Amino acid sequence: MQEHSDDELFSIEIVANKTGLKAFDSETSVHTERINQMTERFSNIRVVTCAESLAKLAEEGDPVVLMKSIMITSSAAEQVAKRTADGWLYLKL
Which residues of the chain have pLDDT under 70? Predict the structure, then answer.
């Protein structure tokens, strides 16, 4: 990442939905510090979460309090479709 941090053509966007959102919960995630450090250090890394999934988790009584650096999109599926249409490579983990 450091090698490509100034490369405008090299970006990583993590799109999270469903229970994957828990990894970005500022109150419960064991990864909070590492994710915050990564997104602060590298401008070419973004984390985007799904508003639909956030609402569903809250409705089920399991709300997620996102870290400051996390962005929200209306739909994870739409975000992935948009990026792949723009030529981005999609990896599902």
Answer: none
